[in-house]
UniProtKB/TrEMBL annotation:
Residues 17-93 form the DUF7768 domain. The lineage of its organism: Bacteria, Bacillati, Bacillota, Clostridia, Eubacteriales. It holds the Pfam family DUF7768. It comes from the Bacteria. It comes from [Clostridium] leptum DSM 753. This is DUF7768 domain-containing protein.
């Protein structure tokens, strides 16, 4: 069975160890985590204006292919607000990591 893609939405300065933890949790909940900040930041030089622009374009393309956006972290930054707005414009489900876990738990309860 194919799993849905879930876009990981976090602040730009989120530590890689947290990004990995968020991706792991989304994976454990049954989704394919898509995290441009973790993956694409490894080969793009984000201090270069052209590559930073490319990074944002790549992230937008990846978001457009995802079924949902998962907000991770306690605060919402300006860049996160922009990603959430884009997701809403494209009718992509927006939820939090905790919300995704509750959805999964509710589904398991109904399966019994």
């Amino acid at each position: 069975m194919e799993k849905a893609f879930a876009y990981i939405c976090t602040a730009a300065d989120t530590a890689p160890r947290l990004l990995k933890r968020y991706c792991r949790k989304v994976y454990e909940l049954g989704y394919v985590p898509i995290c441009p900040k973790l993956n694409d930041g490894q080969y793009l030089a984000l201090d270069n204006a052209d590559e930073k622009r490319d990074f944002h374009n790549i992230a937008r393309q990846k978001l457009g292919r995802c079924r949902m956006l998962v907000v991770c972290g306690k605060e919402i930054s300006n860049s996160m607000s922009a990603e959430i707005g884009l997701a809403e414009k494209r009718n992509i489900i927006c939820t939090t990591l905790d919300g995704l876990a509750r959805i999964k738990e509710a589904g398991e309860d109904n399966a019994i």
